[in-house]
Amino acid sequence: MDTVKIMIVDDEADMELLMRQKFRSQLREKKYEFVFALNGLEALTKLIEHPDISIILSDINMPEMDGLTLLAKVNELKNPALKTVIVSAYGDMDNIRTAMNRGAFDFITKPINFEDLEITINKTIEHINILQKAYREHEQLVAIQHDLSIAREIQQSILPKVFPAFPGRKDFDLFASMKAAKVVGGDFYDFFLIDDDHLGLVIADVSDKGIPAAIYMAVSRTIIRAAAIKGMSTEECMDYSNQLLCKENINNMFVTVFYGILDTRTGSFRYSNAGHNPPYIISPDGKVKNVEILGDIVLGVLDNVHFRSKTIAIEPGDALYLYTDGVTEAMNINNELYSEQRLDETLKTLNTAPPDEIIRTVTENLATFTSGAQQSDDITMLAVRYHP
């Protein structure tokens, strides 16, 4: 146990000798260390010389500066781990009451009962230790929060978020958003031109939340993008990414991924789906339908599987809407899910809306539906309108 430094403030000349005698075993064992002052003014000087003093044991009636004035000066230091115990005659209850009202931690009456004094000192030490532990934990939380804020900034910088993303292109328009349930999340979206005529679209959802998911998300996105940019087909990209994620998977995490390639000349859309929610196609005539599920499993679980692909036609004016299950599984205060049905109904009203309006409208509807409920999962969306 660390030595506790206690300052005794009393104008009685024999107080120092008496305290050293009564607490000689504690001093020998270095449980306590005493600092002595004859009045409040000298005590303030001692506080500067010994900033590690934890307890002030102060008489009230002293020359030059009394104990009540000293207490006021100590309070100005705003050090919650520095506690003052007042000592005065039993008949001086008015001053003792004043001292307690001004922030003294406790009091002892004269003549001093040294057993009572040690109990009071130990009680004060215990309280100080609790405060110091709370302060250390607070500092740790502040440091963690700072690190999380940096992690959030790093994660957000990974995701493309400058829109319009391809201002020179007239054949398509796109928009995306990701709102993490915690400071950082496990969802991600991505989009990139593989060449002038092929647009890659990715949306994914890591199985966990928080920092582990954010790290796995960054790894997954890097692997998938690196494979896709090489010009691999969607199924080759999934096979390659899955093998790497299985090799590096320490915490038994996995990621659902939808990856598609849009031929911007013809509207041909080839995709693979690793256990992810099937996207929607929103037609200008108000029809909404899901892209067919291929039945393949998530990435990062089995390394000996091969993924399939399918090619469909995206007609001029159609929009693709990709999302994570944080949308349909968002709950309101009655624990009701937003559901695919509500999402269908919302998307039908957005048959000709640009991508940013699609995402903004769904986001607003979600906020209205879940008003008062805490967000339980990351919410990520990506929308593309094809108009060659």
Q: Could you describe the 3D structure shown?
A:
The protein has 388 residues and is of the alpha/beta class. It has two domains: 4-136, 3-Layer(aba) Sandwich (Rossmann fold), CATH 3.40.50; 159-386, Phosphatase 2c, domain 1 (4-Layer Sandwich). It is built from eleven helices and 15 strands. It has helices at residues 15-22, 24-28, 40-49, 67-76, 93-101, 114-158, 210-229, 234-248, 325-328, 339-348, 355-369; strands spanning 4-9, 32-37, 53-59, 83-89, 106-110, 172-179, 187-195, 198-206, 255-263, 268-274, 280-282, 288-290, 310-313, 319-323, 379-386. It has a five-stranded parallel β-sheet with strand order 2-1-3-4-5, sandwiched between helices. Strand 9 and strand 10 (268-274) form a beta hairpin. Helix 3 runs parallel beside helix 4. The longest helix has 45 residues, at 114-158. It is elongated, with a radius of gyration of 34 Å. The model has no long low-confidence stretch (mean pLDDT 90).
